[in-house]
Amino acid sequence: MTYLPGLRQPAPPTMVAWGADMTAYNFGHGHPMSPARMELTARLAESLGLFGLDHVAVEAPGVATDSELEAVHSADFVAAVRKVSADPSTPDESRGLGTEDDPAFAGMHEAAARLAGGSLLAASRILDGSAVHAVNFGGGMHHAARERASGFCIYNDAALAVQKLLDGGVRKVAYIDVDAHHGDGTESIFWNDPRVLTLSLHESGMTLFPGTGFANEIGGPDAEGTAVNVALPSGTGDAGWLRAFYAVVPQVVAAFEPEVIVSQHGCDSHRTDPLTHLNLSVDGQREAASAVGNLAAQFCGGRWIATGGGGYNVVDVVPRAWSHLVAIAAGRPVPLRTPVPQEWRDYVEAKYGATAPELMGDDVELWWRSWEVGFDPNDAVDRTVMATRKAVFPLHGLDPWFD
């Protein structure tokens, strides 16, 4: 077990949703959404000592019931998933089932509903007060819409967690999505609900699926300003991404005054991810997770549910990024220069024939310009940020130029 420094600060009661049967969410050999992402993350987090902390409870989620799923999905869609799950030879492409992105497989309903169960369990623990922070790194299926699967996502667990919080008496929820892809499914489910703020920072739809998430997408007629989108140009790195985050997210969250934050931490924004075109490091992704946790501490009494999401560099990136997420949620951040435990590296070599990273970070220097130093119209990131600020800041009583 690796020694974790800095154990002097009080740590929040933290729940992690994890059980090996979550890896049944498996679209088959060669599909980017490899279940090894979850298994390797859990093994690394355990090797780092995170699962053994006294204030961390690791709980295996159950399969969400149909009535639970129907809080955000239609009964017809759940029935369609069940039908394809029972007979994968009869796909329903009109509902996104049995497509190239979401191939049909036996047991698909149960596997997807178990991931959803993880985020519902997280919401339950927040509501009953047994946890202040909760993590479901197997979740974050943010492309799934009310009536349709999409982009490797069958059931939208993050939306289910948000809805459960609302049904449990939470007045307002902020959903923050840092995946490289726009969180279109979650946004669509709460498009006209003024109780839910959806913020998504992602690669522009001009260069990446799903082709949505521009600054002028601001929410429905009863909820204008509650959909916030920062569509970053291809190639954006740590400095630009973090500048954009800090120029938009804290200000809008402060104005919205949520009681709980639910976040999606897809790590496909990494510079080595095979499906996207952003240029972040694990160091930058760790900073993003820390920033979201700080917002929960500042505005929500700490109450925070963090999910996983995309991320397709299965060995080098995902386990480190999500282990950092677990560590931050547990109040025991792992320093970036921490050596990756040798036992984990040996396991990766033996099972996958791959050489694992030596350090928990990418050894980069994180630096970004704060928005207070001024707007540069020649900078593509700044133009993106300003487009978002102009679209939504006035709707929250904020000045797009100065707040």
Query: What is the helix tally?
Result: 11
The CATH architecture name reads: 3-Layer(aba) Sandwich
Major pleated sheet: 8 strands, parallel
Taken as a percent bin, the fraction of beta residues is: 5-15%
Please report the total strand number as a whole number: 8
At the fourth level of CATH, the homologous superfamily is: Histone deacetylase domain
* Principal-axis shape: globular
Features of the shown structure:
single chain, 403 residues, alpha/beta, Arginase, Chain A, 8-stranded parallel beta sheet, 8 strands, 34% helix, 10% strand
Structure description:
This protein is α/β, with parallel strands linked by helices and 403 residues long. The protein has a single domain (14-396), classed as Histone deacetylase domain (Arginase, Chain A), CATH 3.40.800.20. It is built from eleven helices and eight strands. It has helices at 36-47, 66-69, 75-86, 108-128, 157-167, 184-189, 238-256, 282-299, 318-329, 342-352, 380-392; strands spanning 14-17, 56-59, 133-136, 173-177, 196-203, 227-232, 260-264, 304-307. An eight-stranded parallel β-sheet has the order 2-1-3-8-7-4-5-6, sandwiched between helices. Helix 7 (238-256) packs parallel to helix 8 (282-299). The longest helix is centred in the N-terminal third of the chain and has 21 residues, at 108-128. The N and C termini lie far apart (45 Å).
